[in-house]
Design a protein that fits this description.
With 255 residues, this protein is mostly helical. It is 79% helix and 0% strand. Helix 1 (14-37) packs antiparallel against helix 2.
Length: 255
């Protein structure tokens, strides 16, 4: 039986975006680590982390509440799968980043449409039912895949490089932040723009760290870069868990 009185997702605050960027960057370096450094290939990497995503998502939906560690495990799985799928579309299916991005954008819009049709809302801060959570995570999976393809489109097809792409996306994100505070543009629209764009930021930043010097990167390697962002992710989630517990303690104390 569903518990429709408990929200299953976190509030969209500054800490959310910090963890999200760390998770998306880890997704880029982690997917490259498994598919290229460890030579699993895109297909095997997709199957491995897609299976993990399905398993974790099943547990997440059954729990019917928000738990920071489980939530971000599911999220990180979507970023790794998304990176591998994007690379598979471009390099194995040879559709290219342009057509791949357009295909993924269309798929994201279809999922958002059916989500709205079913729930009459695509509010990402209030998820109370199994169906809403399912659409939520499908949209996140596709958006993370789209973000990876968009980042590679900027860095590779437009040939502006990883560092320049990351800086350009950072400026666009700052504009979106400004619009959030200074305009009346839909918060939901701005969220999805920021959500998709933080993914190519993580992707291009991750590539800048890991790619060889002759490819415009710093050649730090996928293993050490993944460990670095893994540590940041763990520390940020631990901070969120601590904040949540303190809030719950103070709330119970008032009662």
């Amino acid at each position: 039986m569903q518990n429709t009185n408990v929200n299953r997702v976190p509030a969209i605050v500054t800490l959310y975006w910090v963890i999200k960027i760390a998770a998306t960057t880890l997704g880029e370096t982690g997917a490259d680590m498994f598919s290229m450094t460890y030579e699993l290939g895109y297909g095997a990497t997709i199957l491995l982390f897609l299976s993990l995503f399905v398993l974790l998502l099943g547990i997440k939906i059954m729990r019917q509440r928000y738990e920071a560690i489980l939530y971000w495990l599911v999220f990180t799985a979507t970023t790794i799968v998304g990176t591998a799928i994007s690379d598979y579309i471009d390099r194995t299916l040879q559709l290219g980043y342009t057509w791949g991005s357009l295909l993924l954008l269309a798929l994201l819009l279809v999922i958002l449409f059916f989500w709205w049709l079913k729930e009459k809302s695509i509010n990402v801060e209030q998820i109370y039912t199994n169906s809403a959570e399912f659409y939520y995570w499908m949209a996140f999976l596709i958006a993370n895949t789209l973000g990876t393809a968009a980042g590679d489109f900027l860095a590779d097809e437009l040939e502006i490089g990883f560092k320049t792409s990351a800086l350009f996306i950072s400026l666009v994100l700052l504009v979106i932040v400004g619009l959030h505070y200074l305009s009346r543009i839909s918060g939901t629209l701005l969220f999805w723009l920021a959500f998709v764009l933080t993914r190519p930021f993580g992707a291009t930043f991750g590539d800048w760290l890991t790619k060889p010097l002759d490819h415009g990167g710093l050649d730090l390697g996928t293993v050490y870069s993944s460990l670095f962002f893994g540590v940041i992710l763990i520390l940020a989630i631990a901070f969120e868990v601590r904040q949540t517990r303190q809030s719950q303690f103070l709330e119970n104390k008032r009662v």
